[in-house]
Write a structure and sequence with these properties.
The complex is a heterotrimer of chains A (442), B (86) and C (377).
Chain A (H helix, E strand, L loop, with lengths): L4 E8 L3 H12 L4 E5 L21 H17 L2 E4 L1 E7 L3 E7 L4 E13 L3 E3 L12 E2 L1 H9 L8 E7 L2 H11 L3 E7 L3 H10 L4 H13 L4 E4 L2 E7 L5 E7 L4 E5 L2 E6 L1 E3 L2 H6 L3 E2 L2 E2 L12 E3 L8 H16 L8 H17 L15 E3 L4 E2 L9 H8 L11 H9 L13 E2 H5 L17
Parallel strand pairs in A: 1-2, 1-6, 2-3, 6-19, 8-15, 9-10, 9-15, 10-11
Antiparallel strand pairs in A: 4-5, 5-6, 7-16, 12-13, 13-14, 17-18, 20-21
Helix pairs in contact in A: 1-2, 1-8, 3-4, 4-6, 5-9, 8-9
Chain B lengths: L2 E2 L5 E5 L2 E5 L5 H7 L5 E2 L5 E2 L12 E4 L2 E5 L9 E5 L2
Parallel strand pairs in B: 1-3, 2-8
Antiparallel strand pairs in B: 2-3, 4-5, 6-7, 6-8
Chain C lengths: L1 E3 L1 E4 L3 H12 L4 E4 L8 H4 L3 E2 L6 H18 L13 E5 L2 H16 L5 E4 H7 L9 E5 L3 E2 L2 H14 L3 E3 L3 E5 L2 E4 L4 E4 L2 E3 L14 E12 L7 E4 L2 H6 L5 E8 L4 E10 L8 H14 L7 E12 L6 E4 L9 E5 L5 H16 L14 H11 L1
Parallel strand pairs in C: 1-12, 2-3, 2-13, 3-9, 5-15, 13-20
Antiparallel strand pairs in C: 4-8, 5-7, 6-7, 10-11, 11-12, 14-17, 14-18, 15-16, 16-17, 19-20
Helix pairs in contact in C: 1-6, 1-9, 3-9
Classes of the chains: A alpha/beta (442), B mainly beta (86), C alpha/beta (377).
Chain lengths: 442, 86, 377
Amino acid sequence: MSAAIVTEVLVIGAGPAGIAAAAAAAEHGRKVIVLDDNRKPGGQIWREASSAKPSPVREKDSMKQRALERLRRSGAQLLAGRTVFSSSADGFVDALRENPANSEVERIQYGQLILATGARERFLPFPGWTLPGVFGAGGLQALVRAGYPVAGKRVVVAGTGPLLLAVAAHLAHDGATVSTVAEQAAFSKLATFTASLWRQPAKLVQGMRYRSTLRSTRYRTGCWVVEALASDGQTLSAVRLTDGNRTWTERCDLLACGYHLVPNTEIAELLGCAFEGSFVQVDEQQRTSIPNVFCVGEPTGIAGLDAALAQGEVAGLASAAKSTAALHGRVLKECAFAKRMERAFVLREELRSLAKQDTIVCRCEDVPFASLRGHTGWSEIKLQTRCGMGPCQGRVCGPAIDFLLGCKPASVRQPLYPVPLSALGSAPEPIPSVAFTQIEKL
Amino acid sequence: MPETLSSQGVTVQINGKTFEVARGTSVAAALLLAGQPSRISVTGEPRTALCGMGICFECRAVVNGVQHQRTCQLVCEDGITVETNR
Amino acid sequence: MKAFDVLVVGAGIVGSAVARECALLGWRVGIVTGDGLSGSATAAGMGHLVVMDDSPAQLALTAYSRSLWHHLATHSPKSAEYERCGTIWIAADTEEIADAHAKCEMYVSLGIEARMLSAAELAQAEPNLRSGLAGGLLVPDDGVIYPPAAAAYFLDEATRLGAKLFPLRATAAGNGEVCLSDGTVLNSERIVLAIGADCKLLPALPIQERKGHLVITDRYPGFLRHQLVELGYLNSAHKFTDDSVAFNVQPRQTGQLLIGSSRQYGSASPEIEPAILSRMLDRAREYMPGLGDLSALRAWTGFRAATPDKLPLIGRATGLSDDSTLWLAAGFEGLGITNAPGAARLLVAVMTDQKTAIDATPYLPARLKQQESMACA
C-alpha cells in the first residue's frame, strides 16, 4: 500500500451530486479529493460516449460541460478509476486503483466525507432475462456509449421509471428502431405525476423532447415484459408483453429492461450511518447521523439530477462551514418531486409473479426461484441456496428478493467489492493522527 | 485479414479471432460486437453484460490472461486478448 | 405443556446432528432453533473434516467422526458439497519434516492412512505452492463439506423422523423445562444444550470465544486440489493467549478457495479487523504467492467455542450444574464440523447407558470439576 493521501474533504462519486459538492467545497478554500470508479467524471447520467456524438438532449450536455468546467476550475482533485472497497469510522477509506497489469491500494484520510455514490438499476427476474440480448435499460445505454453500436437493431425498452424514455431517445438517436417502450406504471398514476410537473416546467420540456425523438415508438403504460424468448435457445429474438388483459409477442434484437433505481448505500452502511427505510438519513445540511459524513443525491432518495445538484451544493458548502440556508427551498422542492415520482412508478403486484420456479434469481450463482422456497430471511437464503454469494455480493438479486419475498440483505462488510486478495493482505501503513488545521502545513 | 467491426481503431483478440474496434470501445462492448459471451455461468449458460456500470459482474471475462475482469470497466487497448470466462 | 423425550437447544451442526441421532431412536424430539444458523460457528466455519492429533482423546474423536462422515456423505445432498480431497500438512523446513514424520508414523500405527510427500511430490500435488518447501504429509481420507447445508440435512432428517422445530430463542433451560421467547414452556427429562459459545443459558460453562477470520475467492477451478495446512498451524491452534495466524486454504467444490486462519481471544466484536486479516493473508501468500492475484469476494468472522482443555463437553452437565436434566454438546472449538456426528453418537449412547464406540470419559463435562480440584490440590 502506498502512503496515505490526506484531504480535508473527500467526495466519493463524481456524478452530478459529487461534482457539485466537490466544486462548492473547493471554491471555499477546502482541499478536496473526488474519487470515482469510472475513468471519467459524470456518473451514470453524464456518462461520456466513446465517440463524440452530441446527446439528443442538448441542455444536458451543456449542463455537464458547465459542471465539469466548474469542477476543474475549483481546484478539487479528481482521482478516477478508484473503487472504494473499505471505509473506517476512523476517518479513512481504502480504494483500489485498477489496471489489468497490477492494482494498487490507496488509503485516503479525510476530515469530512461526502458520499455521492449514486444509484443502480433495479432488476427483476423474469423467464429469459439471462439471455444474451437482454440488458438493463441504463445498462444498454451505457454499453452503447462505450462503443456498442445499435444502429439498425430493433429494441424494446421496458420496466419503469423516467429513465426509460431517456434511454429510448438515446437508442433511437443512435439509429436503433425502438418499437415499444413498455412502462409498467398505469397511465392514471403517470398522469397525476405529469400533471404535477407544472411546478417544474423544465422537467416537462425535457420529457417532451424525448417524446419528439420517438415519434415512431409506441409508448405503452400499464404494460410489462413477461418473458424474453430465444429462437435458437441462446440469443434473444422476441419478448412477450402484457397489459394485464392481453399478452402478445414482439420481435426484437435487444431488450433494455430496468425497474427504476436502487441507491448505492454500501459505504454508508459500513460506516454505520442511520437509515430511513432504504435511504441514508440526512439533515437539512445533508449531514448523516455521523457528524463529519454527508450524503447527497440518490442514496438519500431517488430524486434525479436537479436534486442531486442542489444537495451536492448544500453538502459542499456545509463541509466548508458556509451557510446553506439559501438552498434549502430548492432541495425541499426536489425532494417533494422525488416523493411524487416514487408514487408514480411504484411496482405493480403482478411483477411479483413474473419469476417462474426455474427462473434464475441470482445470476452469479444461477440460483432458481424455486430453491428460495421454505427459507426465511436473507441470511438463511444466502447460506442455504448460495443466492447473493457471488461477486456482485447481492447487488442485483438483493433488491429483487426484497421485492419478491420482502427480505433485505444482511449487513455489509469489507471488501465492498471483490478485490485482488493482495489488496486485503497488504499491511496498512500506520496513519499519524494529525489535526486538520495542521494539514495544510504538511 | 482481421474481421473489421469499425473503421479506425485498435486490434483485439477475442476467443482467438482478431477484431478491430473503435478507439475508446469498452471490452464489454467489443465482446458484444464480436457476438461472444463474456462468461459461461455456473450452470453453463452464455452471459453478456447486463448493467454496463460495474455492478452486476455478468461481463466478467479473461483479459490478458487474468480471470474475472469486469469488461465494462475496461477500455480496449491495442493488442489485448479477451477470452470468455469459463 | 408439551412433553418430549429430549429437547435440543441450538440447531448448529452439533445440535442438528444430536437431534437426528435422537430421532433415529424413535424419540419425541423438540429442537429450539433460535436464530437459526446466523451468528453460529456452523455458518462461519471452514468445513474441514480432519483428523487432529493434539491429544489422544482429540485424535480418537476426530478419527471416529471422520469415519461417520464417510458414511453420511453417501446420503447427504449434493448441496453439502462433500469432497474427500485430503489434507496436506506442509513442512516448510527440515525441522517440520521431522514433525511430519512423527505425525505420519503415529497415524499409520493407528490405522489412519497417511504418507510423506517429498518436496518434488508436494510441488507436483500443488503446483501453486511456493518453491523451496521441504515436503508434506498427505492424509488422503480427510475431506471438506459445506457446513450450513450439512446441518440443514441433519435437521431435515430429524424432522422427517418426527422432530418438531421451535424457531424461537430459549430464555431459560433447566429442571426439565425450556422456556421460549414467546412464553411457551417445553418439557422433557433431557435437555441438550448445543449452544456453541453462547453461555447465557448456563453461565457456569467455562467456554471462551475464539475469533477467526476467513476470506473466500471467486472461482478458480484447478488452482488448489487439497486442503493445505502449515504444520505450524498446531502451534497456532495450541496457543492460549496471543493472537495467531496460520496458512490454511481449502478448495471448494465450486472452484472457490477458502482462506484462513486466525485465532484471537478477547475480541467479542464480529467486525473484521484489518490488522489480523492482513497478517493472515500475508501468511497465506508466503506459502502460495499466486493467491495475491485472485479475486477475493468476501471476508467474515466467526467465533470458536474453546474449553480450557481444548476438548469438547459431551455428556451430563455434572459439575457445572446440579440439574440432572441438563446435558451438553458444546465447546468444540475449531472441530465442531468434524466432530458433530461422533459427538451426537457418543451423547446418545451416554444418555441411554449404551456402550460407546470410543471411550467417552475424556469428553464428559464432569472432568472439569476434577481438573479444577487437582489444580487446587
